Amino acid sequence: MSKQYTQKTLEERQQQMKEILQNLENGVKEVFTSENYIRYLETFSKFHNYSFNNTILILMQCPKASFVASYKDWTEKFNRIVKKGSKGIQILVPTPKKYWEEEECTRPDGSKYKRKIEKRKLYFKIGHVFDLSQTTGDELPKLTQNLEFDTPELNKLINCLFATSEVPISYDYDLKTDTDANGYYSLVKKEICLKPELSALHRLKTIIHEYSHYYQETLFKEHTKDFDRDTKEVVAESCAYCVIEMLANETNIEKLSSEEYSFGYIASWGSKDLKELRSTLEMISKISNLIFNWVSKQFAVA
């Protein structure tokens, strides 16, 4: 396996990264012009946008969450049913309350009187939402295609990554085949979990994606603390695409590419002006290089 590996110089890698990022931008742009994107947009525009705090709450309780909605919305908007026994994910629901307060006023003649003024105060109550994985029914449109590619070399590489990772990696057997999420980084347990029923290439891509989340929440936390979830997902999948492309450029493994999945995934989380991608190119490059150094080292010795 090591005989297939051809290490690039620093200058070659820098040029390579520029080209990869340009290909990534072009590929995502093409997704936005596809007919499938229009159908996808019509469906997913029905999902509510949750606040930063609620997003953190959702991911703390359900790290594998991809798309969440209320019980009513799943039924009425998406024609899907929440599975019996599913535990709701708690969120904070803003609830404004009206109340009246007396205010002392002065008439033109100097006499005093009191009048009631309507005021509002914002309270919060506990609400519940459910993830896509907790529902069944009509299929939602997808912009991604699972990567179907296996080789002994990739499986050996993945075993090496499991063994040498600085953050624990394991399989979550609750991530069934019909679950939309392929993996997640747990903010609570500080570990990466993967869906077991994935091809070697898709497992590799998911490890890189979740490793980017791990770095975003640790090494680069000061830079990402104000990022919304969309931007963090764009960064994570961009890193996955870049690392896979870099690995493909330095090995002789054919079909080593994640574009069938990554382009659509980034489009699903990003905006048409690609602001999430363009504003984070430097970070994507830094995290990708860190992960690639680890992955390529394991490839060379596996």
Describe this structure as you would to a colleague.
The protein has 302 residues and is of the alpha+beta class. It has 11 helices and 8 strands. The strands form 3 sheets. The protein has a 3-stranded antiparallel beta sheet with strand order 1-4-3. Strands 6-8-7 form a 3-stranded mixed beta sheet, covered by helices on one side. Strands 2-5 form a two-stranded antiparallel sheet. A hairpin with a 5-residue loop joins strand 3 (89-106) and strand 4 (112-131). The protein is elongated and about 95 Å long. The mean pLDDT is 91.
Key phrases:
elongated; 2 domains; 3-stranded antiparallel β-sheet; 3-stranded mixed β-sheet; alpha+beta; 302 residues; 8 strands
Structure at a glance:
With 302 residues, the protein is an alpha+beta fold.
Q: Treating each run of at least 4 consecutive H or I residues as one helix, how many helices?
A: 11
- Widest sheet: strand ordering: 1-4-3
| Uncertain residue segments | none
Radius of gyration: 24 Å
Helix content: 40-55%
The count of DSSP E runs of length 2 or more, i.e. the number of strands, is 8
Q: Averaging pLDDT over every residue, what do you get?
A: 91
Write the layout of secondary structure elements.
Blueprint: H1 10-32, H2 35-44, H3 52-61, E1 68-69, H4 71-76, E2 80-82, E3 89-106, E4 112-131, E5 135-137, H5 152-164, E6 169-171, E7 183-186, E8 191-194, H6 200-217, H7 221-224, H8 229-249, H9 259-269, H10 275-278, H11 281-301
